[in-house]
Amino acid sequence: MEKYKEVPDDSLFYDLSPEEITLLFYLLGIALSQPLTVDEISLLANGLFETAQVMFVIAAQRSLVNDAISEQQDKEEKKSTEKLELEVKKLQDKIENLQKQINEWKR
C-alpha cells in the first residue's frame, strides 16, 4: 500500500498565513453570495458544507492509513535492528572464542 502525500510539492496554502487564508475564504464567500438569492446561498452553503465533511472523512482515512504504514515500517525496522543486534552478538561471541583459542595456543 502506498503512503499518501502529507506535504505537497507546491501549494498556495503554504505561502499564506492563517490570517490571509481566513481573509481569502471570507472574500470568496462574499463574492459568491453577491449575485445569488437567499435560497441559492443556502443551497450552495449546504453543498459546500457537505463537501467539507466528505473531505474531512477522506483526510482522516488517509491519516489513518499513513499511521498504519508508518507503524508497520517501524515494526519492520525494529525487527531488522534486532536481527542485526543478534548477528553482532554472535560475531562478538565468535571473536571471544577465537581470542580464547589464541590465548591457549600462546601458552
Description:
- The chain is an all-alpha fold.
- It is 83% helix and 0% strand.
- The protein has helices at residues 12-15, 18-33, 38-106.
- It is rod-shaped.
- The protein starts with 11 loop residues before the first helix and ends with a helix.
- 0% of the residues are buried.
Helices, strands, pairings?
Layout: H1 12-15, H2 18-33, H3 38-106
* Residues in helix, %: over 70%
Radius of gyration: 30 Å
Give start-end ranges of low-pLDDT stretches.
none
Count of runs of 4 or more consecutive helical residues: 3
Helix/strand structural class: mainly alpha
How far apart the termini lie comes to 61 Å
Taken from the alpha-carbon principal axes, the silhouette is: rod-shaped
Strand content: under 5%
Order of helices and strands: HHH
Number of strands: 0
> Mean pLDDT score, rounded?
90
Largest sheet: none
List keywords for this structure.
single chain; 107 residues; mainly alpha; 3 helices
Describe what is shown at a glance.
This protein has 107 residues and is mainly α.
